[in-house]
Write a structure and sequence with these properties.
Length: 629
């Protein structure tokens, strides 16, 4: 009896317990894996633990190293699924094989489809593409070094319940590819608004940038210094008053006239940072009474809260996105209704951006909200309240790479889509080196030397100039154009898709579909016209400059049938003036009779060119360019 008693006890003592395998956040249910390529799976277990992966009727085995790290490869698998995969005690379901694209950049890649729910209402309501899936990487930074995993994240399908959180650009890109190739498309979206390219590049990728390396080392050693909080601003009189200024029983005294849209600095409030209240009574017909409604308030700089008849119906903490608020049924009444908007601004011009929609509407009626309102200042922030020693971690070199890219590196990709540059327009010359550095860095990290890299050239933005001027935005676009010398790259020109008063233009569909065209050429090897005309060379003949292009497709045209516009010409002094231009033998002939000895030419070379009308017959716009390098 003693022997039989001791036997199970010995087994408990000497048998090795079954270890819990842990997987990276990206490797989970509903993931899309890259078709037709060896696919790496990886994770963590106990040191020297045996790990067995069972997939598609076969078993693949490896052993964790002494630190518990393990990895193995699945063989190339054709597009399809769904599959089930087991890793020791874990089971992953609904796995598809297709094409996986890493989509990254700043806010124009962040912008979710739901932000554009008016422009793309039909696309949202009709989305039914469960084989297009997005993994949204949470916003994270780390200055200490590359991180092994993400804290959260899920693969979500492109169906009505989840489609609103998809990157709008990435969605239209993926949908176009899905329609073309009928294979699952996976999007890994790692993007953060307002961030520079240096933050997305690894320490190794910045090896030729000593200042960035020094800052990385400093951050590793000292970390990001703590923020010294700014003094609290004075109380807002509009909120402390009894009744508050948004209440219907408040009696408005001392309010002045102001116009919406418009900035208050342009209407008598010089250099004011603070809170300004806007107030207006509108008269509604009985047909709108009690109806659910929507209010469009364009874009407001910076934060706002909207009150209707004393009830808050919406608020936004930042100047983006455009304001589109829902008014609940029963709040509107026939006759007079009170609208009050509380606007907070801490820097620059505050107020309502022009050339945006401002209206209140029900299913069958609408009220225009543009026009005269009254205003009163709730609080003026003292200058010290706007000063801070804050260092934004997301602007530090390698900080976003470490936290949002490094954990994804083992995941096999089809290619990369990049939409970024706005945050680097202050130093456009550096971007000439920084963009190629990022491309080569990410290819090295993923160990895919020919990984297709597609990117968006910045669209037009800011005020129109009716005389040639120097432009950092134009210089950055030129840096983006020069990056096409890196093999296996393509650029989606978007100069015609911008909005003068919005750094986040509404047209995301054309951007995504132009990227998809580029993918068809660079990643899929299709014989398609995938780009608008790109500058090739220029020669001087008499007092003309003759410009040749690649990517002319079926021939050069102008979008409006007029002569090519926004061409500039200069002599050796580089003093540019507007030029005349015409299409001759699929080239552009440029001249100005006052420049007898022309030396240089530029096209669409401003922040926001007035009419960049040069295209090919495939309706793809020409890239801005210059020859005065």
């Amino acid at each position: 009896m003693k022997k039989w008693f001791l036997l199970p006890l010995c087994c408990c003592i000497f048998s090795k317990p079954f270890a819990q395998v842990r997987l990276p956040r990206l490797v989970r249910d509903s993931m899309i894996l890259q078709r037709d390529e060896k696919v790496k799976l990886w994770g963590w277990a106990s040191g020297k633990e045996k790990v067995t992966v069972r997939f598609n009727g076969k078993a693949y085995t490896t052993t964790a190293d002494t630190s518990g790290n393990w990895s193995l490869y699945l063989p190339p698998t054709k597009a399809g699924g769904p599959y089930t995969l087991t890793i020791n005690q874990l089971t992953l379901r609904d796995i598809l094989f297709g094409d996986v694209w890493f989509c990254s950049g700043q806010s124009n890649m962040v912008h979710q489809l739901g932000v554009h729910d008016v422009t793309y209402a039909r696309d949202i309501s009709e989305a039914s593409h469960p084989q297009i899936r997005q993994f949204l990487v949470p916003t994270l930074t780390n200055v200490a070094g590359p991180q092994p995993d993400l804290p959260t994240g899920y693969w979500k399908p492109a169906v009505p319940a989840d489609i609103r959180t998809f990157s709008a650009v990435a969605w239209f890109f993926a949908r176009k590819l899905y329609e073309q190739y009928k294979v699952p498309i996976g999007i890994i979206n790692a993007s953060v608004g307002g961030t520079p390219i240096e933050a997305w590049t690894s320490e190794a990728g910045l090896k030729n940038f000593p200042a960035q390396l020094a800052l990385i080392e400093k951050n590793k050693t000292a970390g990001i210094p703590p923020i010294t909080p700014a003094p609290a601003p004075p109380a807002d009189a509009g909120l402390t008053a009894t009744p508050a200024w948004y209440q219907p029983d408040y009696t408005a005294t001392g309010w002045r006239n102001i116009h919406i849209p418009g900035y208050w600095e342009d209407q008598g409030l010089k250099d004011l940072n603070g809170v300004v209240w806007y107030r207006r009574e509108i008269t509604l017909p009985s047909t709108m009474a009690g109806q659910p409604a929507r209010v469009f308030l364009g874009r407001i700089v910076d934060a706002d809260a909207l009150y209707i008849n004393g009830q808050q119906v919406g608020n936004t903490a930042y100047q983006y996105p455009q304001r589109r608020y829902t008014v609940p049924a029963g709040l509107l009444k026939a006759g007079k209704n009170l609208l009050v908007i509380r606007v907070t601004n801490t820097a620059g011009k505050g107020g309502f951006v022009p050339d945006k929609p401002y209206s209140l509407f029900t299913e069958n009626d609408s009220i225009d909200l543009k026009g005269d309102w009254t205003y009163k200042v709730g609080v003026a922030f003292p200058p010290v309240a706007n000063k801070s020693n804050r260092i934004d971690p997301s602007h530090q070199p390698a900080a976003l790479y470490n936290a949002m890219v490094a954990p994804l590196i083992p995941y096999t990709l089809k290619g990369i889509c990049w939409y970024q540059g706005e945050a680097n327009t202050g130093q456009p010359a550096a971007y000439t080196q920084l963009l190629p550095a990022l491309i080569y860095d990410w290819r090295a990290q993923w160990k895919q030397e020919q990984l297709p890299f597609l990117y968006v050239q910045l669209p037009g933005f800011m005020d129109y100039n009716y005389w040639p001027v120097e432009s950092n935005w134009a210089l950055l676009r030129d840096a983006q154009l020069q990056a096409l010398t890196v093999p296996h790259t393509a650029m989606a020109v978007a100069i015609d898709l911008g909005e003068w008063n919005d750094i986040h233009p509404d047209n995301k569909k054309d951007v995504g579909e132009r990227l998809a065209l580029a993918a068809q050429k660079v990643a899929y090897g299709e014989p398609v016209v995938y780009s608008g005309p790109l500058y090739q060379s220029a020669v001087v003949e008499d007092h003309h400059i003759i410009v040749s292009f690649t990517q002319t497709g079926s021939g050069l045209i102008t979008a409006d049938g007029e002569a090519p516009a926004t061409f500039e010409i200069a002599g050796a002094d580089k003093k540019f003036v507007w030029a005349q231009a015409k299409i001759v033998d699929n080239k552009i002939v440029v001249w100005n009779d006052e420049i007898p000895h022309p030396a240089y030419v530029r096209y669409a070379f401003s922040d926001n060119p007035v009419n960049p009308n040069l295209y090919n017959r495939e309706k793809l716009p020409a890239s801005p360019f210059r020859t005065d390098k």
